[in-house]
Amino acid sequence: MSERRGGARGAAEPRRTAAGVVTLLGSALSNQVGAAVGSFAFPVIGPMGVVVVRQFVAAAVLLPIARPRFWRFTRAQWWPVLLLALVFGAMNLGLYTAIDRIGLGLAVTLEFLGPLAIALVGSRSRGAILCSVAAVLGVAAIMRPQPTTDYLGIAAGLLAAACWAAYILLNRTVGRRIPGLQGTATAATVSALLFVPVGVAVFVVSPPTPAAIGFAIAAGVLASAISIRTNYATRSRTHGSQAEVSKAT
Fold first, then answer.
1. Neighbouring C-beta atoms of residue 72, cutoff 10 Å
2. What is the 3 state secondary structure string of 170-206?
3. What is the pLDDT of residue 9?
4. Residue 173: exposure state from Cβ atoms within 10 A (0-12, 13-18, ≥19)
5. What is the pLDDT of residues 48-76, one digit of tens each?
6. Residue 245 to residue 176: CA distance in whole angstroms
7. Taking phi first (over 0 means left), then psi (-120 to 50 degrees means alpha), and beta for anything else, what does residue 180 get?
8. pTM more than 0.85
9. What was the pLDDT predicted at 233?
10. Tell me: the pLDDT tens digits for 180-198?
């Protein structure tokens, strides 16, 4: 009997892994489509305005799902949550600034360097290391200096990459110390609150149109809320941090 159960579990494992990979590919598509949709609001509210709305949407979606009991968090639980909140906002601001200045393709490519570095450091496979090195060389070739190179845009993309790497590491810590999505939802909420004065200033100077707000909300749902929720749901199927790393595909 025990052998049959073991065989059934072994047969189910590949199916669970395959389901996790398919879900992650959907998450990756959702993330990139969200970034592209958000860029349609740039002419009205700029990258900063899109980030403000995106942060609030992420918090609004995640809070009812996670229902974090943040009043019970200890100091050891709060510090990674607060750092995650800062990194979350800086990552999105860097990405959308880069998209505005150097385009979606190059911006996302540069941001990919963050999880790529995490994967490279944690990999023990020679093939994976060679592929990572080849990817880095490809990015370096794309970034070669030219007279029209927008160095500020490239710097913003690299900032997004560094923040994404930090996001992955901090998310691991938060996940170990706080059950479920409570820590991530709290971080998203804190990040949104930090952007309140920024949002007021942006929307006073550049009053948003309904279309711009709609694009920004869609970006928040597609690129933040769905992506974060999906990655959490597939961690057990894809062995932990591969969920975050695969988001860059």
1. 9
2. HHHHHHHHCCCCHHHHHHHHHHHHHCHHHHHHHHHHC
3. 55
4. middle
5. 999 999 999 989 988 988 899 989 999 99
6. 18
7. left
8. no
9. 55
10. 889 989 999 999 999 999 9
- Tokens found for residue 80: 């990674």
Q: What is the token pair recorded at 244?
A: 């975050």
Q: Quick one: tokens of 235?
A: 């961690």
| Dihedrals phi, psi of 123, to nearest 5 degrees | -90, 145
The one-letter amino acid at 5: R
Q: Give the amino acid at 127.
A: G
In the numeric block, the tokens 């060679």 are attached to 130
The three state secondary structure string of the chain is CHHHHHHHHHHHHHHHHHHHHHHHHHHHHHHHHHHHHHHHHHHHHHHHHHHHHHHHHHHHHHHHHHCCCHHHCCHHHHHHHHHHHHHHHHHHHHHHHHHHHHCHHHHHHHHCHHHHHHHHHHCCCHHHHHHHHHHHHHHHHHCCCCCCCCHHHHHHHHHHHHHHHHHHHHHHHHHHHCCCCHHHHHHHHHHHHHCHHHHHHHHHHCCCCHHHHHHHHHHHHHHHHHHHHHHHHCHHHHCCCHHHHHCCC
Instruction: Using the predicted structure, report yes or no on whether residue 120 has a pLDDT greater than 50.
Output: yes
